[in-house]
Structure formats: structure tokens, C-alpha cells
Amino acid sequence: LTISLRRGARLLSTAAEPIYRSPPPRVRNLIGGEFVESRSTESIDVVNPATQEIVSRVPLTTDEEFKAAVCAAKGAFRKWRTTPVTARQRVMLKLQELIRRDMDKLALNITTEQGKTLRDAQGDVFRGLEVVEHACGMATLQMGEYVSNVSNSIDTFSIREPLGVCAGICPFNFPAMIPLWMFPMAVTCGNTFILKPSEKDPGAAMMLAELAMEAGLPSGVLNIVHGTNNIVNNICDDDDIRAISFVGSNTAGMHIYARAAAKGKRVQSNMGAKNHAIIMPDANAQTTLNSLVAAGFGAAGQRCMALSTAVFVGGSGAWEDELLKHAEELKVNAGVETSTDLGPVISKQAKARICKLIQDGIESGARAVLDGRNIVVPGYENGNFVGPTILADVTADMECYKEEIFGPVLLCMQAESLDEAISIVNINKYGNGASIFTTSGVAARKFQNEIEAGQVGINVPIPVPLPFFSFTGSKASFAGDLNFYGKAGVHFYTQLKTVTQQWKDELPDQGVSLAMPTSH
Ligand code: NAD
């Protein structure tokens, strides 16, 4: 398995293809510090969603290769856990520099495989880069606590130790940011890692892994395997893997949470969303319109923090014309084209699903203020494009409201009062994010206190906190106790150990006492 490869030809391979046609390259596994070709005969096409060109093929990593990856991670842990935290941090310092150096390459890969605009792809990398920067302060972040002389010359202190081998399972919508939520925090805490990128767009994760190796991450500390359900089940079942970070849909997330928990593993599982904005009649009109359009249609709605539902207190009538005008101005095109506002959705199946939910909504009484289903983009006629779509008069019983659409569709609902609007949001099963637009501090404060969502925005459409806080989704949007990054992220990737020690010139002879020791 471990053949060394020329630099520059490390991530992808073309060897298995016939010589007479130009083949899409095959993505490699990363095992024990080597980018190696999988022996698997099965693979999945990575398709450019704007053109349908096959960019590469992802192998379904075999069980044997998976075991080799776990074995490499387990072996590397012995040395890595005792490597000083300052040395581990230094690898992250170098990694952040290399990510900045290769920002454009990473962004282009994301646009090619995922479809989002180049500017948005840079944002994808940048929000992940901030987690790498955060990991550079790990020595302080993982500090323990100390209480001196809790009893007769006895001191107690707590230390945070790495867990061992951890794993991460990624979704398609942030091909750089989400791998970077995971492995930099995990490895800087002293763990070793198995990453399973999305099979739809693994390229950015592979490039980041190569940068991590260039930054000096020792062999076996980060490993990459590929595939879908089978490899994920292997990760859940393996006794040597101690913790799993998952980001993706509820179907996969709850399956992984239950299966891995049954094996005694820690799991943090970030899942689906239906993020609401409440718009008060006193809201600043321009800010609100800009925010709704940007957060509803940006990244073609394929963000877990997209604002997909707007609840207008007093009705949406007064807002619809302007909303329509703003949405119609957006340019739908391939992400590589300059001035594109939103690119294609990830696959033909995703487009079909989004269009079906729009149709269901209209058939059950929603009014199409703007219908983006029949859009054709000149030069990219095969792309999976859906134009901005606005449905008004949406009610909570409609399928388009109950399901996460994950496309450029903004649902408009109405409420008589702030109380009614808050109750609409709170009844919804998801709780990733919610925002209010208002100029009233009283309304904002009531919203902040009463809303049941993990990430709250006040005149801020996408309130995703920077890495010194945590990504705090709640209700059905999150399963587990410890969120991604921030203090909770460090706690997730470390095990607390407490030490109680007694040091005295002469240890006291107190005889044998079978009573519970006390500090009297
Ligand atoms: P997905 O669940 O289809 O895939 C995510 C990962 O799980 C992939 O690596 C995939 O191979 C694996 N997987 C999929 N189905 C599986 C199954 N049945 N058994 C085992 N493994 C399985 O998600 P996606 O379509 O790639 O991503 C979109 C979803 O991710 C949306 O629901 C979105 O809201 C969510 N998301 C959430 C957050 C968050 O932080 N809450 C962030 C980004 C995306």
C-alpha cells in the first residue's frame, strides 16, 4: 500500500485508466503519510455541477485499507501525544501560512467540484483558516486547573489529555471549512485523525491534507479514507476510534450518533436546519432586504445557516415587491464566471428535489412571487441551476416548510405579533440559527431570551460565531454535548484527568481508617 509518489502527482492518480482516452483522475487515500491508490474497483464520480464534467473519481476505500489507516493513526498517536503542545501549535502556524499561500487554488477546486462562486469559495476556506489560527493557541486553550492544599499538603489538579484516534465525516457544502473545523483542533490537542471527506467534493480536503503534511504534520497523524455508508459504518464500529465529528443531514447524523454511541464513542453531530428570520414592521428596510436576499440565496441556499424562512410580523405584502426586485437582480451562472451571485446546486438529484418541494408548496396554496425552476444559463445549459425562488403565504403544514430545502428558495410566512412569530420558530424541530430584524431593543431582547435556536442574530442574518466561541446549533440541528471549536471543541477532543497528590517531608502516619477520606 505504501508506495512513495512524486510531489505534484500525489493526490490523484490516472494509472488504472486505459491509455487511449484522457481519464478523470482517481482520488487517493492518505495512509501513514503516503497518498496511496486504493485497490477498490468501485468508485464514485465527482461531477462539476455547472458542466456535468467528471472532475475525478473517488474510490470506495476497502475494509483492509480502512484498517491500515486506523493502524497508522494508532501507531502515530504514541509519539504525537507526547510531542510538546508548542511543537504541535507550530505545525498549525505553518499550516495557516500555507493555506493563505494556496487560497486561490483551494477556492478554484471548491468552485469546480461544489459549484459555489469563487468569492464564496474563498470565504469557505477563510472561515476554516480561522479555526487553524485558533488552534495555534492550544497551549492556553487546553490548560487545566489547580487547587493547592485541598487537605493536609494535598494538591489537586486537572489536566486535559488527548483521546487517541478521532474521526471526522464531512458534508458537501463546505469542502474546506468543515474539514478545518475538525482535524486542526483534534490534532493540536494531541489526537490522531481519520478524515472522510464528502464523496461529492473531496478535492479541497485532499489539498488541505497535503498542506498539513508540508507544514510538518508527522506521518499517520492525519489519514484520509473515502466512500459512503460502508466506510462510515466502519468508523462507527471500530474499537480504536474514540470520537467522531459529523456534519451533514439528520438521516446520516442520527444514524452515526446512535451507532457510534452504542460503541461507547463520543459524538458531536451537526445536522440539518430551517433557519428563520423574524422581520418586525420597524426594521430598517434596506438592511433587511439585503440580508434576506444574501442569506436566502447565497451559495444557492446550500448553507446550514441559510435564512430559508422569513416571518413578517404584520404580513409580507409591504415587502414582496422590493424583495422580488432585489432577487431578480441576482446573476445565476457558473461559479467561475465573474459577477456570478449564485452558482448551481450540487447535483441533478438535488435540483429535482428542490423543484419538487417548490411544486408541493404551490399545490398546497403557496404563492410563487418568483419561480426560478426553469432557468437556463447560456453556455452552461447542462448545469444544475435553480434561480432564486420566493414563495409567499407559506404555512407550517406545507411540505416545503417542514423539509429542509437546501436550495435558493425563500419562504415567506406571516404573524400577527412578535409572540406569534417566536412561537412559529420555536415549534419548528430545527434550531440551528434564527435572526430578528428590528430597530427596537425591547423586541430584540425578548427575541434573544425566548427564541429556541443555538445561534441568534440581531440585525445579523448569518450569526455564525468565530472560533473562540463555538458553533452552537441546538434542537434537531445538533446531537451531542460538546459543540464544534471554541472551548467546547477543545473539551470534545480531550479527556479530563484529575490528579490528587501529597508531598511532605514526612508523610503522616494516620493508621488505617476504612472511613471515606475527608478534608477535616
Ligand atoms: P449527507 O448527510 O448526505 O452526507 C454527509 C456525510 O455523511 C457524507 O460524508 C456522506 O458520505 C455520509 N452519509 C450520507 N448518508 C449516510 C448514511 N445513510 N449512512 C452513513 N453515512 C452517510 O449531507 P450532505 O448532503 O453532504 O450535506 C448537507 C446537509 O448537511 C444539510 O442537511 C445541511 O444542513 C447539513 N449541514 C449542517 C451543518 C451544521 O453545522 N449544522 C453544516 C453544513 C451542512
From TrEMBL:
CDD domains: ALDH_F6_MMSDH (cd07085)
Gene Ontology cellular-component annotations: mitochondrion
Keyword Ribosomal protein: no
One biological process term in Gene Ontology: L-valine catabolic process
Molecular functions (GO terms): methylmalonate-semialdehyde dehydrogenase (acylating, NAD) activity
Any one Pfam family match given in the protein's UniProt record, by short name: Aldedh
EC identifiers of the protein: 1.2.1.27
Keywords: NAD, Oxidoreductase
PROSITE patterns per the UniProt record, alphabetical: ALDEHYDE_DEHYDR_CYS
Domain Aldehyde dehydrogenase: 35-499
PANTHER family named in the record: MALONATE-SEMIALDEHYDE DEHYDROGENASE (PTHR43866), METHYLMALONATE-SEMIALDEHYDE DEHYDROGENASE [ACYLATING], MITOCHONDRIAL (PTHR43866:SF3)
Family membership noted in the UniProt record: Belongs to the aldehyde dehydrogenase family.
Protein name: methylmalonate-semialdehyde dehydrogenase (CoA acylating)
Species of provenance: Apostasia shenzhenica
